[in-house]
Amino acid sequence: MDNATATHPHTHETAVGSGHEHIALPQHRHHFETEEQQREAGSFGMWLFLLTEIMFFGGMFFAYLLYRNWYNPAFVAASNQLNVTEGAINTVILISSGFFMALGVWAAEVQKKGLLVLFLILTTLFGFAFLGVKADEYHEKWEKHHIPGASFDVHEFINPPIDAKTGKPSQVPMAPDMAQKTQIFFFLYFAMTGMHALHMIIGLGILFWLTWRAHRGEFSTGYVAPIENFGLYWHFVDIVWLFLFPLLYLINRHPLT
């Protein structure tokens, strides 16, 4: 007879010969020697994924800076059409969401189930608030015909409206050919903010799943890898916006007189 008896690796293992018992967590996959090895592999995979995301967004940032250098007057004028107040509000909302996500990671690590569920819910609510503000911004662009395509209107850039306070044009009138280049700005604006919003929508779907699992107590026994890895993803989304906001909304943000 063998001197050791083993049960299913996902439940527990008993080592009789060595005189001690090793309890494996239910989520421990058999192809990892230890739970710590599994956690490190998952973390490495998440960082590798985020590296590919950095390269993806980096390409769009590079394209934006390149075209802004080529058509700077058009990009400055188009940038001044963005709602900087809503952009700032969304920045505060997203930073708050990231703060609660960080608290969620902490709650998982100290095994406080109630707080973990609360912080995940707050993270989700702030995420939806961000998307709500962004949807209002998109609706404004729709009303102004600033969505690239056949209905794109450059009239406001060629003949800017008169400012009621100063009696002067709200911005410097542009030649028709340069005014058409504002469409490139808005194409990049929708591409960059739209891709960011898509990442948030995917993240919110994962948050629902994690909240359900947290409510079941799956992260109350020391198993925190999914929360930690998702926290990295969510903070990456925050960081991307912290670059998008000044790049799209704030550079050359001043009345053009």
- The H-level CATH homologous superfamily of the largest domain, spelled out, is Cytochrome c oxidase, subunit III, four-helix bundle
Largest sheet report: 3 strands, antiparallel
Structural category is mainly alpha
The SSE string, one letter per element, is EEEHHHHHHHH
Helicity, as a percent range: 55-70%
Give the strand content: under 5%
Beta strand count: 3
Count of helical stretches: 8
CATH class call of the largest domain = Mainly Alpha
User: How far apart are the termini?
Assistant: 92 Å
Low-pLDDT regions: 1-24
State Rg. Answer: 25 Å
- Examine the coordinates and then state which fold CATH places here, giving the name of the CATH topology of the largest domain: Four Helix Bundle (Hemerythrin (Met), subunit A)
Mean pLDDT: 82
Strand order of the largest sheet: 1-2-3
Which overall shape is indicated by the principal axes computed on the Cα atoms? elongated
* Overall CATH architecture of the largest domain: Up-down Bundle
Number of domains: 2
Characterise the protein shown here:
There is one protein chain. This protein has 257 residues and is mainly alpha-helical. It has two domains: 1-31, no CATH class; 35-250, Four Helix Bundle (Hemerythrin (Met), subunit A) (Up-down Bundle). Helix content is 66%, strand content 3%. The protein is built from eight helices and three strands. The protein has helices at 35-70, 72-79, 84-109, 113-143, 155-158, 176-180, 182-215, 225-250, and strands at residues 5-6, 13-15, 20-22. The chain has a three-stranded antiparallel beta sheet, with no helix packed on it. It starts with a strand and ends in a 7-residue tail after the last helix.
